[in-house]
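Notebook p. 47: complex prediction with heme C.
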Amino acid sequence: MRALLVAAALLLIGLPPSSAAAASLAQRGLVVAEVRCQACHFLTRGQRRIGPGLLGVYGRAPSIRGVPFKVWDAAALDRWLTNPRAVKVNTPMYLAPLAARDRAAVIAWLKQNR
Ligand code: HEC
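Predicted complex, structure tokens below:
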């Protein structure tokens, strides 16, 4: 019975109705952020940890110096999260490689919480 419930839940996760696809991507992005960003960033608005709070970042200008972006949009965030040091050599943000689908999920979550 338990296995059946798990299988049903996996089926639901695996086959989101298309209208919910963006929401479910963002939901996955929150999990990625908890695992990969939270050590250095509070997942809140404004409050600083090692780096700035992550909520509200999407769609606004960078609060940090030395990055060549006017605004944190999906393309800028994708470049930053692919390799922060390729964007800003001396940045203290160290991020072990993040898979493209995890970057997309985290960016969807940031966009949802702009
Ligand atoms: C090892 C600590 C660390 C980890 C892990 C980390 N960051 Fe950072 N992050 C920083 C620091 C420090 C800065 C400030 C960088 C600077 O000033 O060059 C920063 C800056 C940023 C900024 C710029 C914010 C602004 O206000 O302009 C974004 C966006 C960001 N990080 C996103 C993320 C995301 C998303 C993750 C997880 C996938 C992540 N970071 C993981 C330490 C980290």
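Notes: The chain has a mean pLDDT of 89. Residues 75 and 107 are 9 Å apart (CA to CA).
Next step: compare against the earlier run before touching the bench.
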